[in-house]
Write a structure and sequence with these properties.
The complex is a heterodimer of chains A (about 190) and B (about 625). Helix content of chain A is about 35%, strand content about 20%. With about 190 residues, chain A is of the alpha/beta class. Chain A has a single domain (about 5-185), classed as Rossmann fold (3-Layer(aba) Sandwich), CATH 3.40.50.1450. Chain B is globular and about 65 Å long. Chain B has one domain (about 10-630): Cytochrome-c3 Hydrogenase, chain B. The interface of A and B includes residues 107 and 137 of A.
């Protein structure tokens, strides 16, 4: 079992930087298993190519993906956790994701869709989404998001190292169905 | 005399000066553009919409995701099959200029890099060049050469990506079939003239492999983006947003081994360029032959601007005073093409002719009403407009959208008060016509064309010739971009050879020391380029901190709104001239493919995931445009 814990987002974009911050913090964590921590905040095509670069015997078997995603149907700071069901959207939507991917957009959904379509992403993907409250330049979080960052780090550690905890999560499409219904809610 | 609208003349020594006796030389009426097209008034459009059922709104409505978007509003006449109104809208403000004020200038290299995720290193370098000029710091020859190679590698990433991942699908069987079935039928039996190079027997086969997600050309381009990126990372450490760009050069350590590893990737683009050119030559000629009206898709006046790129390592001294000299020794000559004619290659003339207007943008005016113009001249005494970037003050003012007034976060940059287009093709055109290219064995500028001698790979050595086109439209933009891939690879080859010579001599220095002055006021400008063309950063320092920072990107030019003279921006003008050639009379089935081809031919880089709306509902798919045009206020 080899796990990657990855942050996806933008630096210096306040709440939208939560994935990057979590990855930064977990870099120093004393992991008890074979866990890699990376900031995958770049072109998802390149992310796919990076994941494919792992030799077959070293391929990741589970990914814990962390990022801010603005769904608009939950309060700022809400955390949604789920196992992605891996169902891809239509080809037209995938092409749109590729267009965005190669033109510099960094978004957790795009990264998941592109890496699943072209290969590279492990079968088991756990997603931790945080609803952002603000989108503006800056290196601090809004209050609701700042409150949950420690919890998100702990959650990522648990889900990376405890296969049982990950297996208990609901399987859901991107976005985790509705907040706190199919997904596991925090904050 | 390169200015026809601004009251700027030149003395016997070629020094520009303001014409005497003009009371308000930069006023709207004393220098109004002559002969430029104008949008219909909003009142006229409203009247046409009310009186004619076959005239309809077509809105490209953005779904803004994380990073920014551009939307497009048109009014189309379905009976006349033409566009009556076109409005380009940048829908987000992120204000890099505002962020930069008061900071240490070195921060600018890393912060402004984020203006675009595709042009991952160009903003860093442009910023470093602006700082170099302001503080007086010159990179060593190897630093200049490596910077050139890195830029070329960015373009080798960008051009295939645009051609086959973004624009290519518009010419694929998957798109041509539903929009123009008879054209696809014709393509299936049309032999491809360059089959021996690209391997496709018919145009129909070629169109099949342009299909998104599954086409061989699509997947091959995906792979080539990796090759270019790997090469870039070898010399710059990281892509995008390299941490190795510094004022005075590069902080990377470059060895013969690194250069050789990089070259194995670069060399793959020699054959790939031959293939790209063969594909886009065949596609373009097929469409022209099938229906000459395609020559009008995306057509506009050939008004092009480019700040020039790829400095000669023995010429660049980072001073504004010598910019004319070092600019004209660049591997891609700076210049302005007006109505198809080269009017200047002088970076001073290019710089002083630039102005930005905000009549239709969500900003307040910063000039007029007795406000003091900070810099009446450039650093060598040439006259500057109050609307010039060095005089500009960014004053964002969000408000509701109104076609008669303000409707975009992009500004309206103009040169000599004309709407100019930026792109890879401006680079080719200036260089071909100016004939100032450094002596070299691979690229020849003839005055009307560029000859490109691409070395042997799996394909034999081949000489390609890009000729200045007779018409300027969406197809020629894409065709030129394919040729520009070969041009870029050969510029990289020339610079690689020169860099190897330096390394063999033991000259491994890639950067020069520098200090940020803590006193006084300094100015600088980085004249550089993105894959899609013109890029400048204008910088003013005051006691060691940034007092003003202005970015002008290619998409700021291309996506610009109409100006105070109702002169449309380039996207707008290109769409206004585009005939609707789709094979449907039903607006509800209309996909807007010709409009999309027109816009996408500019190599817009940031997704504006838009859907075309008609009264019948949401119909079609996305357009892409560039964050660059948005980030700095536009852009």
């Amino acid at each position: 079992m080899r796990v990657i814990v990855a942050g996806v987002g933008y630096r210096n974009l306040r709440d939208h930087s939560v994935g990057v911050t979590v990855a930064d913090r977990l870099l120093d964590h004393a992991w008890c298993g074979d866990v890699a921590v990376e900031d995958l905040s770049y072109n998802p095509i390149a992310v796919m190519q990076r994941l494919e670069d792992e030799p077959p015997e070293r391929r990741f078997t589970r990914a814990v993906m962390v990022g801010a995603v603005e769904r608009g149907n939950r309060p700022p700071g809400a955390v949604t956790v789920y196992r992605w069901d891996g169902v891809l959207p239509s080809d037209e939507e995938i092409q749109r994701a590729v267009s965005e991917a190669v033109t510099g957009v960094i978004a957790l959904d795009n990264t998941l869709v592109v890496t699943r379509h072209f290969g590279g992403m492990p079968d088991e993907v756990v997603v931790i989404e945080v609803e952002p409250g603000v989108q503006e330049f800056g290196d601090d979080f809004s209050e609701p998001v700042a409150k949950v960052v420690d919890q998100v780090c702990e959650l990522a550690v648990t889900l990376a190292t405890d296969a049982g905890a990950a297996a208990q999560l609901p399987r859901a499409p991107l976005g985790g169905a509705l907040p706190a219904a199919a997904g596991r809610g925090l904050g | 005399m390169c200015f026809k609208n601004l009251p700027i003349e030149f003395d016997a020594q070629g020094k520009p000066f303001l014409r005497a006796g003009v009371a308000d030389p930069y006023g709207p009426s004393s220098a109004a553009p002559r002969g430029a097209p104008a949008q219909l008034t909003a009142e006229r459009i409203e009247d046409l919409l009310k009186r004619n059922g076959y005239i309809k709104d077509l809105d490209f409505d953005p779904i803004t995701r994380v990073a920014g978007a551009l939307a497009f509003h048109t009014v189309a006449d379905f009976r006349g099959r033409k566009v009556l109104e076109a409005r380009s809208m940048a829908t987000l403000f992120r204000g890099y200029e505002v962020i930069m004020v008061g900071r240490d200038p070195r921060d600018a290299i890393f912060i402004t890099s984020r203006a675009c995720g595709v042009c991952g290193g160009v903003h860093s370098v442009t910023s470093a060049m602006a700082i170099e000029m302001a503080i007086g710091c010159v990179p060593p020859p190897l630093g200049i050469l490596i910077r050139n190679i890195a830029l070329a590698l960015e373009f080798l990433y960008d051009h295939p990506l645009h051609l086959h991942l973004l624009a290519g699908p518009d010419y694929s069987a998957a798109m041509v079939g539903p929009t123009n079935p008879s054209l696809l039928e014709r393509a299936r039996s049309a032999e491809a003239p360059h089959a021996e190079i690209h391997g496709f027997r018919t145009i129909g086969e070629l169109m099949e492999d342009l299909n998104p997600l599954s086409g061989k050309l699509y997947l091959e381009a995906l792979h080539m983006t990796r090759v270019a990126r790997e090469a870039y990372v070898l010399i710059c450490g990281k892509y995008p947003h390299p941490q190795t760009i510094v004022p005075g050069g590069m902080s990377s350590t470059v060895t013969l081994t690194v250069m050789n590893e990089m070259f194995t990737r670069l060399a793959q683009f020699f054959d790939y360029s031959k293939k790209l050119v063969a594909i886009w030559d065949d596609l373009t000629e097929f469409f022209y032959e099938a229906n000459p009206a395609y020559k009008q898709v995306g057509a506009r006046r050939a008004n092009l601007i480019d700040s020039g790129i790829f400095d000669h390592h023995e010429a660049y001294d980072a001073t504004y005073a010598s910019a004319t000299a070092w600019g004209e020794r660049r591997w891609a000559t700076p210049g302005v093409i007006m109505d198809g004619q080269l009017v200047t290659t002088d970076l001073h003339a290019l710089n002083i002719g630039v102005e930005e207007f905000v009549e239709h943008s969500y900003y307040e005016e910063w000039s007029g009403s007795g406000q003091r113009q900070h810099f009446p001249t450039d650093p060598v005494g040439n006259p500057l407009s109050p609307y010039h970037p060095w005089n500009k003050v960014t004053k964002p003012r969000p408000q509701g959208q109104n076609w008669k007034e303000k409707y975009t976060w992009d500004t309206a940059p103009r040169w000599d008060r004309q709407a100019m287009e930026a792109g890879a093709y401006a680079r080719l055109w200036n260089t071909a016509v100016a004939r100032k290219l450094p002596a070299n064995p691979f690229i020849e500028a003839t005055g009307t064309s560029l000859k490109l001698r691409l070395p042997k790979g799996a394909l034999p050595e081949l000489e390609l010739e890009w000729k200045v086109p007779a018409v300027w439209n969406a197809f020629e933009r894409n065709r030129a971009r394919a040729y520009c891939t070969g041009f870029t690879a050969l510029v990289a080859l020339n610079n690689w050879l020169a860099a190897m010579d330096r390394l063999k001599l033991g000259d491994t220095r890639t950067s020069a020391p520098f200090e940020i002055p803590k006193r006084g006021e300094q100015r600088g400008v980085g004249f550089w380029g993105a894959g899609r063309g013109y890029l400048t950063h204008h910088l003013t320092l005051d006691r060691g901190a940034v007092a003003n920072y202005q970015i002008l990107t290619p998409s700021t030019w291309n996506a610009s709104p109409s100006d105070r003279w109702r002169q449309p921006g380039p996207y707008e003008e290109a769409v206004l001239n585009t005939p609707l050639l789709e094979e449907t009379d039903d607006p509800a089935k209309f996909k807007g493919i010709d409009i999309l081809r027109a816009i996408r031919s500019f190599d817009p880089c940031m997704p504006c995931t838009t859907h075309i709306h008609s009264d019948a509902g949401v119909i079609t798919r996305e357009v892409n445009t560039c964050a660059c045009g948005i980030d700095d206020e536009g852009g």
